[in-house]
Amino acid sequence: MAITGRAFWGTTYQGKVARVAPAAVTRQSQQSSETTVEAVIALAGPAPLLKPGHSVDLKVTTASKPQTLTVPFEAVQEEKGQRYVYRIVDGWGLSYISCLPAFPSG
């Protein structure tokens, strides 16, 4: 996982998820709510610029599959149990491509 943050702009630390809380927690404010899941991250090495209380951004890679086209989840359509995405043909026309799950269950 890549760990970045404003407090250490331009520096990226590496780490792995060591533990994830068993449940999400929703916090309410006057204008909105925020749902978070606490996690403990094991750093891969020293992180001298990372301090307690800093907010960070995490880029977590849960799996990878070489030679695979990926699209945003929101681009996938579903009709009658079939998943597909649209593609542009010859610069303007649309056709669709069936989607298979990247990591089939089982």
UniProtKB/TrEMBL annotation:
UniProt keyword Coiled coil, yes or no: yes
The keyword Coiled coil belongs to this UniProt entry's keyword annotation: yes
Keywords, comma-separated and alphabetical: Coiled coil
Cross-referenced Gene3D superfamilies: 2.40.30.170
Superkingdom classification of source: Bacteria
Location(s) in or outside the cell: Cell envelope
One Gene Ontology cellular component: cell envelope
Name of the featured protein: HlyD family secretion protein
